[in-house]
Every structure is written in structure tokens, then in C-alpha cells.
Amino acid sequence: MLAVATGLPNWGKSYWDMAVMEDFHKDWGLPDFRGKYLDHANPPIVFNSYQFWLRMQTCGEWEWTLWDEPNKGLSHRDWYLDMNKAVVTYIQTFRFKHKPLLLALPHIRLLDKSARAVMVGEAMMKRPGLARVHQLEPDYFGTREFFKYFRGEVEEYLPNRQFRNWYEEAKMKFHETDFPKEAFQQPTETGETKSKQTVELERVEGIVRQDPLRFGKPSPDGKSYVLNAQKIEALTNTTARVAGKARIRLEDEFGSKASPKK
What we know:
Elements: E1 2-6, H1 13-27, H2 36-39, E2 45-46, H3 49-58, E3 65-67, H4 77-93, E4 101-105, H5 113-116, E5 121-127, E6 130-138, E7 146-155, H6 161-178, E8 185-187, E9 193-195, H7 196-210, E10 216-218, E11 225-227, H8 229-236, H9 240-257
Parallel strand pairs: 1-4, 1-5, 2-3, 3-4
Antiparallel strand pairs: 5-6, 6-7, 8-9, 10-11
Helix pairs in contact: 3-4, 7-9, 8-9
């Protein structure tokens, strides 16, 4: 079974999913979300495709899994691409092995179309703890993607404290390892950091300084050469934006040192 909780960030989608998982495990006589069940190598909440794959291979029949959407990952498209690839694989392999999967996303459209086609339900958060549950059924004859049948509202309380504490620690660990600030900055000799664009700009300027005439073109009067952003972009394999900035920053330096090409 594949289902999703949708809603605004920080509206309790993950906690609602966790409480639902607790209810099902309790009713079905499955392991409780405490102690050793949270501490083993493949816990019930995953944050990336590797954790998800291990969980699907090792969890027991009918044991629920939540793939959580981290707040800091909202702007990372690669994270969503990774999730969609893994969920589609889940549909092809694990969906028939009685391993229910819950997702927590800002919007259902972030999920791949092939996954939405086999999703059984969507819980739309009205407020933290309260969700409107809709059964999803594909529209095979019309123009819409699927029908949504309202099945009622489900109010859940907070999951147990141990489960919550474990989840918060696991989420912070994921943020530190998968989305570290150091991955987007480069340290300098003084210990300060530079953005990726600044590092790239300095690299391009260094290349242009070595042979400025190579990146120039004749001026309108034909007496000198001026830097050309298109040449800089092509010959240094950089972006048009960085090439333009490099041309502007080096124009004075180039004009004072370069001589007409013979």
C-alpha cells in the first residue's frame, strides 16, 4: 500500500504519519516503535534511497515505513528525483510483498506520475494532528488524473515520546550528512568560506589572465583587442553569467596590458 500526507511545511505531516503507523502496528500485533526496534540498522523512518532500499529488504511483512520529507530538502531537486526513482522501483518490486509505505510531501504533484497512479490515499492536513483522508482512484476515461473520494477526518495525537525523540535526532543527522553547508562552500586559507560562484569566477579569471588575447576580439577601431564573453564561456567551460562577470572585472586590466594581435 502506498499513501501520502500532504500539507504546508511544519504542519505535522510526519508526526501524523508516525501516529498512524503506531496505530496499525498496535492493532496488527506488530513491533512497537520503541527501544530495539528503533535502534537497529534499518529503522522505520528513512530519508534517502539507500536507507529506503535497506528497509524494504529487511522489514517484516506488513511493517510500515515512512519516507520523510526533510524541511531543509525543500529546495533540493536532486532529493525529489532520488525519492521518485526509489518509489517507482518500490512499485515494481515491493508493493506486492505487503510492505506499506507512507510519504510526507508538500504536494502530491512532487510524486512521480507512475507512483500517483497506484496510490490508494491522500491525507490532506487541515491543521497539526487533523487530516482529511481521501481515497484515490485513477480516472481511466476522462481528462483528470484521478478521483478523490472523501472518507472522513482522522485526528491523531503525538506519537510516543521515545519515537519522537528518535525521529528528531535521526532527522538532524540526515541534515548534517546529506545537506551539509560545507558541500556548498569552499574554505580559504584563512578559514573563511567562499561560494561556488566565487570559486568558479576566480578560476575563470586565472585562465584568462594567462593569455588574454586568446579570449579577445578586435575593437571597432581595429587598434586593440577587447575581451569577449562568448569566447570566455566557450574556452573555459563556464556559464554565461560567470563569463560576463569575468569580462567586466578584467576589462581594465586587459586594456592596460594587451597589445593588438599581429
